[in-house]
Amino acid sequence: MPVTLAGNSYGKQAVRLVTVRRFPDRHELKDLTVAVRFEGDFAAAYTDGDNRGVLPTDTMKNTVYALAAGHPFENIEDFGLLLTDHFLTNNSRASKVQVDLTEHPWEPIETYRTAFRQAGSERRTAGVTRDREGAKVLAGLEDLVVMKTAKSAFEGFPRDRYTTLPETADRLLATAVRATWRYSRPDIPFGLWHQVRRVLLETFAEHDSRSVQHTLHAMGEAVVRTLDVEEIHLAMPNRHHIPVDLRPFGLENRNEVFVATPEPYGLIEGTVRRG
Amino acid sequence: MPVTLAGNSYGKQAVRLVTVRRFPDRHELKDLTVAVRFEGDFAAAYTDGDNRGVLPTDTMKNTVYALAAGHPFENIEDFGLLLTDHFLTNNSRASKVQVDLTEHPWEPIETYRTAFRQAGSERRTAGVTRDREGAKVLAGLEDLVVMKTAKSAFEGFPRDRYTTLPETADRLLATAVRATWRYSRPDIPFGLWHQVRRVLLETFAEHDSRSVQHTLHAMGEAVVRTLDVEEIHLAMPNRHHIPVDLRPFGLENRNEVFVATPEPYGLIEGTVRRG
Amino acid sequence: MPVTLAGNSYGKQAVRLVTVRRFPDRHELKDLTVAVRFEGDFAAAYTDGDNRGVLPTDTMKNTVYALAAGHPFENIEDFGLLLTDHFLTNNSRASKVQVDLTEHPWEPIETYRTAFRQAGSERRTAGVTRDREGAKVLAGLEDLVVMKTAKSAFEGFPRDRYTTLPETADRLLATAVRATWRYSRPDIPFGLWHQVRRVLLETFAEHDSRSVQHTLHAMGEAVVRTLDVEEIHLAMPNRHHIPVDLRPFGLENRNEVFVATPEPYGLIEGTVRRG
Amino acid sequence: MPVTLAGNSYGKQAVRLVTVRRFPDRHELKDLTVAVRFEGDFAAAYTDGDNRGVLPTDTMKNTVYALAAGHPFENIEDFGLLLTDHFLTNNSRASKVQVDLTEHPWEPIETYRTAFRQAGSERRTAGVTRDREGAKVLAGLEDLVVMKTAKSAFEGFPRDRYTTLPETADRLLATAVRATWRYSRPDIPFGLWHQVRRVLLETFAEHDSRSVQHTLHAMGEAVVRTLDVEEIHLAMPNRHHIPVDLRPFGLENRNEVFVATPEPYGLIEGTVRRG
User: Fold this and answer.
1) Cβ contact (<8 Å) for C164 and B262?
2) Searching chain A, which residue's CA lies closest to the CA of residue D162?
3) What is the pLDDT, as a whole number, of residue D104?
4) Of D116, D201, D244, the CB nearest to B109
């Protein structure tokens, strides 16, 4: 029976890069995790064990460090563009190169300029994909953990024989936002990221939510309408906080005491685009 | 500016289900994590907060438990088929329902028939996707952690200015196999899973490996050639074990002492199919 | 052969409690994980399966929620004192009750008063232990992740045949501080926690570090000297950031490019006390 | 105000060591994580930044690899004895050296002798502590995950105003056993570990359990009575599996359908010793 290699890719994951730039009055700290992925004409390695076209993933890792040394960058998108350009230019068998970058944020400790505190689990992300036609950039963020204690309801849903969920006009709404977006112009300054994040946070806080879906859409719509963003995808797990039933103890729960449950959780996704 | 909801889905993740069937001579224990995901005509929930079509994810969870009660199953694929059929039949707005199932294995402790030991991190998986045309089943496994201490090389690769990796004719090869496959006939007995797993393990053990790519392809090819499998996708992270340089201590490392490194790691993927 | 039950304890771990207090102008959000542990005269349960003295751990959990409902608190130490008092008063067999509390911080999103962002992995902790003599309180924090990019050296250490580490006058110093301390007066306002945290951060940032040990001691000394703290224990893993050797690529690393390594890591501990 | 360094320790954690011994007919694979910890006269490093007595933790790591090269071992306890002896002999300032070893198990794939499968999350542990008086060895295991589907009850417990837990004569009992023990003779062959593990498993399976406490004690008692073990400490989290209430769906749960809950969980500990 004939068999076909119907698809293939390879690369290096979890390359941990920290850079320090030393200015007279302060240091600038960058903390990244980088992943590199090649697609292309690598079938001989799979079928025949012919490694002549296989740039080692160890070399991909080295390249990340070597290029970081000579090319300071402000926005991770720019470093991703540099890396994909290098890899595609220097590897003729690769037809597509993808570089995913995750930035771990550090903030100066008070007014000290050479000491930093890790500001949280929230991360900035970028995905740069380049083929012989050009490059595409997806900006993003993940693990932006937020909670609303007002203006969140879930009512009016259908009920079947397995539905026991009570309707609620006033629930906690907690999630860990993951967002990726495409800017509407190729020459956008990537520092616009900070405004996208701000609009997402403000809309989450302000929105009169009838469901996670409803708030997700409002967040995406606000970004697309007010900033140079063509399309945004949002994934928002519903981290349920359930009011504890205190009646068995002769007490009333005035919507004040909750149990946070890690599982199961809802997962709501949506893409909002212009047009 | 007009905006469009260009895509949406919602569902429940991480529904933890354990079932016990009690036979006279033994108990049968099943331990599953189930995820349910709907796509369809749910735009009004996003854009207008209209929940009239939104079956609560809490109801999805309840349904998993309720159907598990009345329908014992041997293979998780069958439970996925049952669940997708139920959801699609009873929710006219849903155009596609996906149920992902992960089975955590337990083995009887010695000859005891009502006591079990969790046999490892390895898991069996199934993904069932159903739309109005019918259902598709992907069988799979993940976190099958294996290592070869012989018959593994990596040589003959290209070198550029950033390449420092030495060639090696005898290295450790360790990975955590993730595989998903599609059977070649719809009426296949899903217990064939055990044979796929066995062929994957045996081929990994026997293969004279020139690279992860090479072994991945051999594993996929063996499955597709010898069993009723149409197509298999394999993802194999290269968990590097690096020989420790003992020369600074006046010692020789005869390929016996290694440091296991969690990151960075290679990631090799490929799809092998018939034809 | 006679055997003895030489020690025993039991309790409930990982009780997740979220409370919301609703003021006219803002909401106050508390997010805690609570653990309860009893020691005492429980041997009959172990040796004879006699459960008559064993308050269920499920009841411990319920009690956490029930007492949270009626007793709003500002500092977690106060809630720990309340819980230990309740448990010891109502369970005559218990000779010692320990309650460990971990607070997960949330910050208001900008100026919104009913929407919050999880501010990071850093957590406030308290351990309250009570026996028939009275209660002891340990305040603390954990996962305070910090890094210095200046004023950190490690030189002058002894070398043996297995030593390859180069001396360095200018290295990155990164750690995740875990601290527990005992106040010097029983009537201390527990909000002093915020000043302890501030002194730890400032001393870390300012200190001219010759080693992790050196900085750990400076941090502990500053707390004990300047605040009402009798004794502080600090545990500081050394999260190594290693300069990448760029010479094979014809480049120089001017102390700017580092690889962050998760393992192995140093672990330095010390206790500083008055007197 | 005078301050004192009231305690201190330092060392290296998470040293990952994999060794392969190559016999004509098979390979032997060992996979360990090692931690080294010194106590002693190291105050000058803390108080004055004087590093002259501080063997770098990097050297500790190197020593683990260097000694592994020349000293193959069957049981991890022996490697711990070797390491502590080396460190204490060669570091006059150290008064106590502790080495903790964790072994990750691999099993041959079927009859292949140079290919292995990671057999699970269960781990063998050893803690060796040595001071100028001699060495102490604690053998152990952790994450031995087991479940009983019969012969487990929890009844007859006291009820207070916060107790809602129903009594049950037939529940699931699941735990992840962590055990540490001290052998009764210094010249014990450390391979006795396998028998301790077997007795723990068999007793768990056989025992007519009235509570986790009851089964924990039976397990410890069986080990101490039947093997050369002086004392054993057991920690057994109660991983609750809660019967799903199917009555709202018009169904009966005949003790067959459960939700596995990760938190909260009970935690039961006890020490059984001879005499």
Assistant:
1) no
2) A249
3) 96
4) D201
Identity of the residue numbered C120: G
Q: Report ipTM for this prediction.
A: 0.96
Active-site residue identified among A12, A30, A61, A233: A12
Superfamily in which the B10-131 domain is placed by CATH: Urate Oxidase; (3.10.270.10)
Q: Which residues of D are marked as active site? A: 12, 57, 240
Separation in Å, CA of C27 to nearest CA in chain B: 25
How much is the pLDDT for D1? 82
| In CATH, A10-132 is 3.65.10.10 | no
Using CB atoms, which residue from D205, D253, D258 is nearest to B112?
D205
Architecture label for domain A144-273: Roll (3.10)
CA dist C158 and D52 (Å) reads 6
Q: How far is C78 from chain A (nearest CA, A)?
A: 17
pLDDT of residue B152: 98
Is residue B120 over pLDDT 90?
Answer: no
Q: Where are the domains of chain A?
A: 10-132, 144-273
Residue D119 has pLDDT above 90, yes or no: no
Domains B10-131 and B144-273 share a fold: yes
CB spacing of A164 vs D250 below 8 angstroms? no
Contact yes or no for B118 and D121 at CB 8 A = yes
The yes-or-no verdict on residue A120 having pLDDT over 90 is no
Strands B27-40 and B3-22 turn out to be antiparallel
| Chain D residues near residue C6 by CB distance under 8 angstroms | 231, 271-273
